[in-house]
Amino acid sequence: MNREMNRLKVVLAETKRTNRWLAEQLGKDQATVSKWCTNTSQPSLETLFQIAECLGVTVQELISKNSTKDHE
User: Fold this and answer.
1) How many CB atoms lie within 10 A of CB 14?
2) Distance of alpha carbon 28 from alpha carbon 33, whole angstroms
3) Are 71 and 14 in contact (CB under 8 A)?
4) Mean pLDDT in each 10-residue stretch from start to end of the chain (72 residues)?
5) Tell me, what's the pLDDT at 30?
6) ∠ CA(29), CA(14), CA(18), 5° rounding?
7) Cβ-contact 28, 20 below 8 angstroms
8) For the chain: N or C, fewer Cβ within 10 A?
9) Is the Cβ–Cβ distance between 7 and 42 less than 8 Å?
10) Chain centroid to CA 31: how far?
């Protein structure tokens, strides 16, 4: 049941940003951002919006594209 919940790692790579950079922007610990990137834990909804703003993407772009089945 190791289902990918977010695409943060992919979006960081696409925007050429690092976990460290994002952690600094959000005032979070780098280990916390690393856990989000590996889907060990998930950011809060509020933090997800902050991440999207920092990276210049939509929240939808940060969410797994595998979730389309859930909307049928």
Assistant:
1) 12
2) 7
3) no
4) 78 96 97 95 96 96 65 43
5) 97
6) 25
7) no
8) N
9) no
10) 13
How is residue 71 annotated by DSSP? G
CB 22 within 8 A of CB 48: no
CA distances from 27 to 2, 20, 36, 60 (A): 28, 10, 15, 23
- Distance separating alpha carbons of residues 49 and 14, to the nearest angstrom: 18
Residue with tokens 């856990």: 35
Do 58 and 52 form a contact (C-beta atoms < 8 A)?
Answer: yes
Residues constituting the chain: 72
Which amino acid belongs to residue 33? Answer: V
The reported pTM is: 0.82
Q: What are the φ/ψ torsions at residue 63 (nearest 5 degrees)?
A: -95, 145
